[in-house]
From TrEMBL, chain A:
Entry's Gene Ontology molecular function annotations: propionyl-CoA carboxylase activity
Assembly, per entry: The holoenzyme is a dodecamer composed of 6 PCCA/alpha subunits and 6 PCCB/beta subunits.
Organism of this sequence: Oncorhynchus tshawytscha
Name of the protein in its database record: Propionyl-CoA carboxylase beta chain, mitochondrial
One Pfam family recorded for the sequence: Carboxyl_trans
Catalytic activity: propanoyl-CoA + hydrogencarbonate + ATP = (S)-methylmalonyl-CoA + ADP + phosphate + H(+); butanoyl-CoA + hydrogencarbonate + ATP = (2S)-ethylmalonyl-CoA + ADP + phosphate + H(+)
Pathway listed: Metabolic intermediate metabolism; propanoyl-CoA degradation; succinyl-CoA from propanoyl-CoA: step 1/3
Residues annotated as domain CoA carboxyltransferase C-terminal: 250-489
EC number: 6.4.1.3
UniProt GO cellular component terms: mitochondrion
Domain of life the protein comes from: Eukaryota
Boundaries of every CoA carboxyltransferase N-terminal domain copy: 1-246
Automatic annotation (TrEMBL), chain B:
Quaternary structure, from the entry: The holoenzyme is a dodecamer composed of 6 PCCA/alpha subunits and 6 PCCB/beta subunits. Interacts (via the biotin carboxylation domain) with SIRT4. Interacts with SIRT3 and SIRT5.
EC number: 6.4.1.3
Keywords: Acetylation, ATP-binding, Biotin, Ligase, Lipid degradation, Lipid metabolism, Magnesium, Manganese, Metal-binding, Mitochondrion, Nucleotide-binding, Phosphoprotein, Transit peptide
Catalytic reaction equation(s): propanoyl-CoA + hydrogencarbonate + ATP = (S)-methylmalonyl-CoA + ADP + phosphate + H(+); butanoyl-CoA + hydrogencarbonate + ATP = (2S)-ethylmalonyl-CoA + ADP + phosphate + H(+)
Name the UniProt record assigns to this protein: Propionyl-CoA carboxylase alpha chain, mitochondrial
InterPro entries: ATP-grasp, BC-like_N, Biotin_BS, Biotin_carboxylase_complex, Biotin_carboxylation_dom, Biotin_COase_C, Biotin_lipoyl, CPAse_ATP-bd
Keyword Transcription regulation: no
GO molecular function, one term: ATP binding
Gene name linked to the record: PCCA
Keyword Protein transport: no
Amino acid sequence: YTHIYTHRQSVAQSEVQEQSRRWYSVSHLSVQERIDRKRNAALIGGGQKRIDAQHKRFAGDSVVTGQGRINGRLVYVFSQDFTVFGGSLSGAHAQKICKIMDQAMMVGAPVIGLNDSGGARIQEGVESLAGYADIFLRNVMASGVVPQISLIMGPCAGGAVYSPALTDFTFMVKDTSYLFITGPDVVKSVTNEDVTQEELGGAKTHTAVSGVAHRAFENDIDALLNLRNFFNFLPLSNQDPAPVTECHDPSDRLVPGLDTIVPFETTKAYDMLDIIQGIADEREFFEIMPNYAKNIVVGFARMNGRTVGIVGNQPKVASGCLDINSSVKGARFVRFCDAFNIPILTFVDVPGFLPGTSQEYGGIIRHGAKLLFAFAEATVPKITIITRKAYGGAYDVMSSKHLRGDVNYAWPSAEVAVMGAKGAVQIIFRGKSNQAEQEAEYVEKFANPFPAAVRGFVDDIIVPSTTRKRICRDLEVLASKKQTNPWKKHANIPL
Amino acid sequence: MAAYMITSTLRRVLLVAKHASFQSRCCVASSRVQYSTVYDSNEKTFDKILIANRGEIACRVMKTCKKMGIKTVAVHSDVDASAVHVKMADEAVCVGPAPTNKSYLNMDAIMDAIRKTGSQAVHPGYGFLSENKEFAKRLAAEDVVFIGPDTHAIHAMGDKIESKLLAKAANVNVIPGFDGVVEVSYTVNMVVLATTFCKFMIVLATNQTGSTFNSFRLSSQEAASSFGDDRLLIEKFVDNPRHIEIQVLADKHGNALWLNERECSIQRRNQKVVEEAPSTFLDPETRRAMGEQAVQLAKAVQYSSAGTVEFLVDSNKNFYFLEMNTRLQVEHPITECITGLDLVQQMIRVAKGFPLLHKQEDIPINGWAIESRVYAEDPYKSFGLPSIGRLSQYQEPIHLPKVRVDSGIQEGSDISIYYDPMISKLVTYGATRAEALQRMEAALDNYVIRGVTHNIPLLREIITHPRFISGDITTNFLPEEYPEGFKGHQLTSEGRRELVATAAALYVSAQLRSQRFLGNLRVSTTPQEQRQWELCVELEKGSHTVAVSRSGSTFTVEVDGVTVEVSGEWNLASALLPVTINRTPRVLQCLSRDAGGDITLQYLGTQFKVRVLSQLVSTLSAHMPEKVPEDTSSILRSPMPGSVVAVSVKPGDVVAEGQEICVIEAMKMQNSLIAAKAAKVKSVHCKAGETVGEGDLLVQLE
């Protein structure tokens, strides 16, 4: 017994024993520890020391795991430690992660990973690879059961990048975190490409170009504080409802600014974020992928304290059209919300899918179908507001009534039609002279919300300033919505 | 001319562009105006009036029309289609695209609108066509009444030089000077100082020939672009002048009244910022003398309607005629507050031919009124450079007593580059000046404006400045008091503590709230509210150790060992943050609050960025890598949205420090942008005629 006791103590002294239990507790204790460790590592130096250490075993290995609470709500956390073998993944390292993931799934609590790992521990060979696969399997099993979040806090290469890719959200730290399959040196030797770490896999690359990461933060502390804030939006598991927090913003607040936000000229842009911030509680909107496929806006907000997922076309960028990237971005977000009981609000101002060879060659049909699939299969409360254009197939896709939308509203400025007046007239009256006249007639007949409203595809045409009030009321009603899809092993989304 | 210049080389001279009236356009009266005038429904004036203006003043005129039972017609440009003045009017007609010369100055379109709507009279407001005799003539030709003076009065007073001669003839004191047109030749080395009332007066520095020409070119260009006239007038410079104007009201039957004065000395770049009525400076004798001279002048030109005679008053209470504005002035509400007259109603009555109802002895001075012009502009850039944007949140302080807000915008409105950036005129009144000032303070603190940069920080500093409170002001007040430019409210150590304590209390209440979930059974059953919060608050590069403890809605905050007690409702959704700090009630505003601990608070008018971190996070922050800020000396960005007038350099040029690189025009004001260091031009990203946004890259240096 004495032996066990002293062993425990030595482990505790090496600051490894489940210290991350408090990582996210109010005290932020572990943040300090993390940084102290980093500093010490820098002082001791890497190189030779590390090679010497290859034959050593470190108590706790290169990962810290545990559970704790953020604002009173349970969470499981693992944090890879770059100071031990570069955070490389050994069999023991993997086991520790798997252990908390298994428990997280059993009790129904999210898993947060703080990733800082150079990849597989080469010295361990296949054991390390097996460890990766064990984690991947658990990532997949936990997907849709508990929310999984990855925060990349240092360079992550090789196998270490796939676990974050399997999780629901990947956040990065600007200037100090990287994600890549192989680093610049290997890239140079394989493809003869000259590229810096930052260009290849920095936060900017992944949040703006590749779409691998969902958001980037200024530094480690900013990232951790924002993660705490983000965590408050999420339910603990797929068995829990979306959280409702205390709200000071009146649910019946009118938003007069919305009455004038949509410009008279249908070609003029406006900022969809103005609408979203206008209706959300306290103007707070946690945007997901704000720098990627900006023609669609997705993110979390609260309505009368209740978490909602918001999807909106962004007329300010590429007229808000749907292209490959925006469809995929939207689809993944909608599926997350559906998996975790988060109601979806959709703001529609979409002129259609982006035409052209680059889109067709890239498979816009296949990728556009993902968004259609995601909205159609979603069984959470779905509220849709058509602010302006809802043209063609894109109208159907954007959470239309036909895809089991629960409440579909149109603003007076809405135009629900197969296409814009000009295009329509050019097709119907090809070669006829009085096109301007026909165009005016088309606008009169089709470019308004009435044809959709009389058929029941739109439940009501509402005064924009009352939008918040109505959504809050509808969400209250729909909170007990129950809808199930037919039994299946799993659906076959067009990947 | 040459002889005059020689004699005046050592004197300072006033250089003034003709037609110096500035074109301010904007503006709704969303307030409870207390007029003593009665609206006699039996007195038949007009059935329908067209208001040839936009914004605040259009709304102001419509308010009175509604009270008088007159139908109103609004004109608007296409971008103004959903503006407040359009919604307020019974009818609205679009008169063209956004640029003013194609819409609000487009006489053909406005004449069409008058015919189409059958309007019997036109109120021009101020700016635009209000002092355009051509417009008045065209209206007369079609038998439409112009609500303003007759054409000959507009003509006589419209020309600075002519009006001066006329005033002289009417025995009005005028500034001694050269009464003619100046031909400026490039050999003249002038020393010129501008004062007061008009943004086209340019200050030129001594002995700097290059700069003189530069400024002269700018001033004459601006004058030409705005008024189509680049003549300049030279007058004796009046030292330490005050700008005091007399409101006159005359009818078509030879009656004329003076409605006391307005003190408009607080100006920036020759545009008024804060006005008050009456003036602290005038004694009853001077007031009467000025009033009587103003009435003499009005009678001399057979003036009818409301008008303003502007005077410069020197430190010995000598006053000199400056010019007469033949229109309703922007700052007319303060005169209305102290006299109880509705000037718009009087203008409409006079235009219809009714005689004035009041005698001179009926005109009172009831209390004190102060007007602050709230602008969408950045006061930290030469006391105010225009800013644009969408008013994402907007709340006027009209819930407070004795506050009048004349505005023409609402939440969601756009402040565009096309028109004057005025948001509103905020007027407060009280029995005494101190009372009016105190109300102004509260009104400014309760005014919520989000989405555009505004000048409330400057306004609040002015009205609480000891020198302003003492009444010792001149037109040079701002440059004298803020020689380095306006830097916002300077915190005292007590103010600092108050601000830090409030920020800390706000942070803690937000943290506490984020731990409260409704109806969620899976929250830890052992509540873990902290009793004591150890925080670190960073403010303006200073860092404070703060300990917070809570009891109910009261926070006891220890800032560097000094205890501050802050209590309030802590409504985290409200834009206003009314708190009681050490038993003193204050209204702060929370502009932003994010997860990283950054809080922006508006405290005493000025916005302060505060960062609240837990003690631990703060210690750890020291280990974070520092971000290298962008080197700004080698890049030139547009300080405001506007259009590029001229670009003086091309890639490869070598520029000296201070050399002009390009000129940006916004809201009819030209700004010369200069090189911050001597360098070679690397690239030019703009060209003349282009529109640029704030912060857009213009020129890059090597």
